[in-house]
Write a structure and sequence with these properties.
8% of the residues lie in helices and 30% in strands. The protein contains two helices and six strands. A six-stranded mixed β-sheet has the order 4-3-2-1-6-5. The radius of gyration is 14 Å and the shape is globular. It starts with 7 loop residues before the first helix and ends in a 28-residue tail after the last helix.
Length: 111
């Protein structure tokens, strides 16, 4: 019987495709709200190997939709839009859990 639940280890490493059908990366981890247990956002790993430097970007969980045929997630974001927002390479002071700062990324913290 098909169900709507998925184990976290199946979400981690799942591919993410952006607008225009371009693979933009893979989900590396999920960030959860401590009290409610809901997923706030996914950390998407982009680049690596032949694509140059690896970067990680936050993508709001509600902007990701599961594509059954691909067994991957899709989003309306592009790689360029992700690059315009925060990444872990923004400096040591960057706090992945801080929602108080307004970032220029149009989709960031839209949850």
């Amino acid at each position: 019987m098909a169900h709507t639940l998925v184990p976290s280890d199946h979400v981690e490493t799942a591919s993410v495709y952006g607008r225009g059908d371009e693979k933009i990366g893979t989900i590396e981890r999920l960030m959860l709200e401590k009290k409610s247990g809901t997923v706030a956002y996914a950390v998407v790993r982009c680049g690596g190997l032949l694509k140059g430097e690896v970067r990680h970007y936050p993508v709001p969980w509600d902007s990701l939709k599961y594509d059954v045929a691909r067994k991957a997630y899709t989003t309306n974001l592009t790689l360029e839009e992700l690059r315009s927002g925060p990444s872990e390479l923004d400096g040591e002071a960057f706090d992945w859990g801080d929602r108080s700062t307004v970032y220029r990324h149009p989709q960031y913290w839209a949850v």
